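Why predict the complex rather than its parts? Because the way molecules touch one another can change local conformation, and only a joint prediction can capture that. The input here totals 680 residues.
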Amino acid sequence: MRGVVLHAPGDVRVEHRNDPAIIDPTDAIIRISATCVCGSDLWDYRGIHPVKDPMPIGHEYCGIVEEVGAEVTTIRPGQFVIGSFTASDNTCPHCLAGYQSSCEHRQYVGAGGAQAEALRVPLADGTLVATPGLPDDELLPSLLTASDVLGTGWFAAVAAGVRPGSTAVVVGDGAVGLLGVLSARQLGAERIIVMSRHESRQKLARVFGATDIVTERGDDGVAQIKELTAGLGADAVLECVGTGESFEQALRSARPGGGVGIVGLPHGVTVSGRDLFLSHVRVAGGPAPVRRFLPELIELIWEGRIDPGQVFDLALPLDRAADGYAAMDSRRAVKALLRP
Amino acid sequence: MRGVVLHAPGDVRVEHRNDPAIIDPTDAIIRISATCVCGSDLWDYRGIHPVKDPMPIGHEYCGIVEEVGAEVTTIRPGQFVIGSFTASDNTCPHCLAGYQSSCEHRQYVGAGGAQAEALRVPLADGTLVATPGLPDDELLPSLLTASDVLGTGWFAAVAAGVRPGSTAVVVGDGAVGLLGVLSARQLGAERIIVMSRHESRQKLARVFGATDIVTERGDDGVAQIKELTAGLGADAVLECVGTGESFEQALRSARPGGGVGIVGLPHGVTVSGRDLFLSHVRVAGGPAPVRRFLPELIELIWEGRIDPGQVFDLALPLDRAADGYAAMDSRRAVKALLRP
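Output of the joint prediction:
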């Protein structure tokens, strides 16, 4: 089959790879209908995470089950399925508590490289969720977002504590931040302030439900947020970047008793215990337990109540994956969808 | 009047001070019935917080209202009252949200030095809570704890997310930690594990409801907690110390999806964003909004349902305040009560 392989920073190639095969009796093999490039793939692409050997890449996927192992009982060949980047048994205490990304038997699905024609998914029964039927082609982008970027934005909103009537701030206008806006809206936030400097992203944020845009950063950004919230700060802040600056921005944007949801893997972030303490702000988050939200997200998409697929502003055949990486790296594209 | 004055590290004196007087029309003057030495006073006593000029000290108090300002409407002379170390209007949005220690008009009551015969309390209506009548003498120690140390332990349990059936860990066996145990029990925790190496404190922890004691620290401490919690970690961890070691101990003792409540002012604590993120643990807390809990705590004490006053293992006349500081500094006493 064909699959994307990262050879070195900036060096993305689509090459022939061995077809995936069942290894464990709990595996499934999926024929990929759509996959995409994640902001976190850029950490590898940019060499911030060193790449030693040529590495299959990609961890967002949806598609049709081709084969299942002998112990798979709920997932069947022919079903259209979506799964998270973390394979989980969905039965251990951490899974039952809703933290499938801390599953006692978790495996990183992306190790197999989801930007490909086919993918092996471990722990298929606990990881994959089937749609009610085979989806129309135009639903594919939205369904694909549920695999990671929508589930992650949704978790940001949940972890931040968005409730009906909340005032929310979204730090970050990447795909996760934009879908954080959509999620905050779905969870009932009345006012949603997005910190963004890019006109096209501001526009999409408004489509997804943003009510206010703040272009300032740092002290000025905090002052703007305070001005928009009667001097109080926001009830819930979605931190969708993962840098020291963005974390500080988020912490300072929340009101005492408010919450910050962190979903971007922190790079070089150290938090002052004293700042955290004096802020009276609750911090929660981590690797999104996407599996927790998949049934609900699939239902919302299937019924046409949300259209998160709009986050893809570039769609390419898999063979042009390198163009998708380059476009996202230079911020010409928010998110690139790839069709095998 | 007589009052405690800290002159320099280790130099605590009881001296003549001017009687407090009404300054603002929202003030009250209280005749102190009982006061005490707080673990946080030791930061000053030990010179960790530098003392420039002789400083009246103490911020825990209960007593009888002597005089009120012209704008005080709910508090009356003759009432027995308890207040927090933070004066709050109890009407601003932060107060209404339950974060009175972030009140828009907050003042530090301790600036007046509560270890004295009398004390000026600003914002009396929003700060003080009257008991149903004049208390018997034996209730004084318990009522005094509500002023800070019990309210702070209670907030640790609330911020950590203790619920009926929870497994809780308490890091720290000082007065706050011990009353954190009592609080976790009251909030319904079924299993309460205390990290303590001091036999007398372990004993009191058991009186307050601890079910297990862990004497190990660091990796061994975490291993013990995991062993006691089926490998999972605790639902709720009360961090009642405020050092880097205690914070790390707390974070590593909680299960994914669990919470850490921080109530000890952090000294030199920096938190790795990545550790926090990967832990899946929620962190909340800060300066305890004691005022939120005062009515409930007073009721529990008044009805004899809790006896937090046992945390005082030393009671001295005010004139011997220096002995109280020395006993706590050397950990010979958990907490010293002072009677003017």
